[in-house]
Write a structure and sequence with these properties.
The structure is a homodimer of 298-residue chains. Chain A has 298 residues and is an alpha/beta fold. Chain A has one domain: Ribokinase (UDP-N-acetylmuramoyl-L-alanine:D-glutamate ligase, 3-Layer(aba) Sandwich), CATH 3.40.1190.20. In chain A, 34% of the residues lie in helices and 25% in strands. Chain A has ten helices and 14 strands. In chain A, a hairpin with an 8-residue loop joins strand 2 and strand 3. The radius of gyration of chain A is 19 Å and the shape is globular. In chain A, 48% of the residues are buried. The interface between A and B is medium-sized, with 27 and 27 residues. Chains A, B: InterPro entries: Carboh/pur_kinase_PfkB_CS, PfkB_dom, Ribo/fructo_kinase, Ribokinase-like. Chains A, B: One of its GO terms (molecular function) is kinase activity. Chains A, B: Belongs to the carbohydrate kinase PfkB family. Chains A, B: Keywords: Kinase, Transferase. Chains A, B: This is PfkB domain protein.
C-alpha cells in the first residue's frame, strides 16, 4: 500500500443563489446575486487531502462541462489524481442549485447526472477508500472489492435501501455520520448503536459546531470543535473527514485523527464555499498545537 | 435611414429544468433533466429578424459568459449586428432559471445581471428601435432619443413606474401588448384604451393562439392565428413582433405586417425553445400564401 486515499462520490458544481423569496408554483422572483462554486463531497475531501500534502485519487463521474467550468484545472492544481474519473461527454456534470432567501430559508434542486450513471459501472479494486455521498449501488460494489473502507452516506442516506446499507456496513472499517444520520442508520438496519459499533472498527459522529465523538469497541473520545469565526458551515464535515483520514493513514492515534479533522474543518468554515480556504499541513500543525496542545510533528 | 432595426432588451440564457416537484423552503428535489437555451426577448427578436434576412442590431447588456456559453457565436451566425452590445466582464449574463414539475407548475428565478446595469448607461440615438422587455429607465432614455419607436413592456411591465411608462408612450409609434398587459397599461396611465390609441400611431394586441388585433385611429384589423401543431408557445410573441417589424420597415400595409408576424410565430411554436425553429423569408412567403392567400413578393 502506497498511502493513496481513494475518494468515491460526487464532484459537483454548486450554484448558490441569494433570492428575494423562494418561488412556489407559478411564482417568479429576482435573483439578488449568485455564484458557482466547486463542490460535491468527494471532490471537497480529495482537494483538501491533496492540499494538505496527502496522496489522493478521485473516483467520480464528471460531465462535458467539467473542463470548461474550470473545475478540472482547479482540481489538478491541488494535486488530486484525476486519472480514475468516469468522463461522460454526453452528460452535464453533477450540479446543485441552492436558493436562499433573506430569512435564510433554503431550497435545493439536485442534478445527479454522471453520479446516477455510476450505478451501472464496474468499479476498480481499491486499497484504502472513502465512500462519500454517492450512488448507493456503486458504493456497495466498491466496498465489497476494497481493502480498507471508510463510509459516510451523508444526505444521500435517503437513497439507500436497508440491504445496500447492510452490505456496505459489513465491509466497512470506519463510518462517519452526523447525529441525525447515525440514528437513521440504526433504524434502517434495525440494530441498536452498540450492535452497529460491533460491526465496525471505528464510528465517528459529528455534532456540528460542538465537536465530534469517536467510538471503538472499548474507547469513546470527545473532540471539542475549535472556536473560530464561522462564516459558512458548508463543507465543514468534508474538511473533518479529510483531516481524519489523512491522519489515520499516517497512523496517528484515533483521538489525534479527530483533532486533525476538527482543525481542518475550522479553516473551511472561515470562508464561504467548501474549497475556498483549504489549509496546508503546516497551518494545521500550528492550529493543532495552539488549540489542542498537540504536536503533530513529534 | 438604412432599414436597420435596433432591438433593445434582454439577451438571456434560459435554464429550463424538469423537476420532480417545485421545492418550497427547506425542501430538496431531484432534477429529472435540464437544458440551457438561448433566450431573452430582444435577442429572440433580433435573431429572428436577421434569419428572415432583415438588417438588425442588438442593444443589450451581456456578461462574461456570453462567449463561453456559445451564445455570441450563435447570434453572429444568424447575422445580428453585435457591435452595440454593452459587454460587462465583471457580470454574469442575464439568466432565467425555470423549474417545471410533472403537473406543469412552473416557478422562475430571474438574474437581471447586465440588464439591470443598463439603467446608468447613456444610450445611442437610434433611427428605428424596438424596445423589448428591458430595464425601464434605459428604455425611456432610448425612446426620448430615437427616431421611430416600437415598444413592448411585456412581463417587465411590473417594474415600470407610471411616469416612466408615460414618458415612453409619449415617444412611441407602435405599441405591442397581450390582452392582460394592455389593460394594465391603461390602468397605470389612468386612461381608457381610446385615449391610449390616440397617443400612438398603432397598437397591436396579441391574444395567444387565437390571433391578434391591430388598431390605428380609424382602423381595427383582426388577424387570426395560423393553426399549427404547437409544441411550446414560448417565444411566439417575440416571433410575431419580429415578423411584424420587418414587414413594417419594408412598408407592407399594417394588416399584412400582422399576417407576417403571425406566420413567423407559427414556426416558433412548432419546436421547444425560442430560437430553435426560426424561418427564413421564403418559408414565411409560402406559409403566408397558403394560409392567408397573401403574396408577399407582389
Amino acid at each position: 500500500m502506497d498511502n493513496t486515499i481513494s475518494i468515491v462520490g460526487h464532484t459537483a458544481l454548486d450554484h448558490l443563489f441569494n433570492v428575494e423569496k423562494i418561488a412556489g408554483p407559478n411564482e417568479s422572483f429576482p435573483i439578488l446575486d449568485y455564484e458557482i462554486s466547486y463542490g460535491g463531497g468527494a471532490a471537497n475531501i480529495a482537494a483538501t487531502i491533496a492540499t494538505l500534502g496527502g496522496k489522493c485519487q478521485l473516483i467520480s463521474g464528471v460531465g462535458n462541462d467539467f473542463k470548461s467550468s474550470g473545475y478540472e484545472d482547479y482540481l489538478t492544481s491541488t494535486g488530486v489524481d484525476l486519472s480514475h474519473l468516469y468522463r461522460m461527454e454526453d452528460e452535464k456534470s453533477t450540479k446543485a442549485f441552492v436558493f436562499t432567501d433573506k430569512n435564510h430559508n433554503q431550497c435545493t434542486y439536485f442534478h445527479w447526472g454522471p453520479s446516477a450513471r455510476l450505478k451501472k459501472t464496474d468499479p476498480p479494486s481499491l486499497d484504502f477508500v472513502h465512500l462519500a455521498t454517492s450512488e448507493p449501488v456503486f458504493n456497495s460494489k466498491v466496498a465489497q472489492k476494497a481493502g480498507f473502507v471508510s463510509f459516510d452516506p451523508g444526505q444521500d442516506l435517503v437513497t439507500y435501501t436497508s440491504e445496500l446499507l447492510e452490505t456496505i456496513l459489513y465491509n466497512t472499517n470506519i463510518m462517519f455520520a452526523n447525529k441525525h444520520e447515525i440514528k437513521r442508520v440504526c433504524d434502517m438496519i434495525n440494530q441498536p448503536f452498540d450492535k452497529l459499533k460491533d460491526m465496525l472498527d471505528v464510528v465517528v459522529v459529528t455534532y456540528d459546531e460542538e465537536g465530534s465523538r469517536i467510538y471503538t469497541d472499548d474507547i469513546d473520545y470527545w473532540i471539542p470543535a475549535i472556536p473560530v469565526n464561522a462564516v459558512d458551515p458548508t463543507g465543514a464535515g468534508d474538511g473533518y473527514r479529510a483531516g481524519f483520514l489523512l491522519g489515520y493513514i499516517q497512523r496517528y492515534p484515533l483521538n489525534e485523527c479527530g483533532k486533525i479533522g476538527s482543525t481542518v474543518a475550522s479553516f473551511i468554515v472561515e470562508k464561504a464555499g467548501c474549497q475556498t480556504n483549504l489549509p496546508v499541513w503546516n497551518d494545521v500543525e500550528k492550529r493543532c498545537k495552539y488549540y489542542y496542545d498537540l504536536n503533530l510533528s513529534d
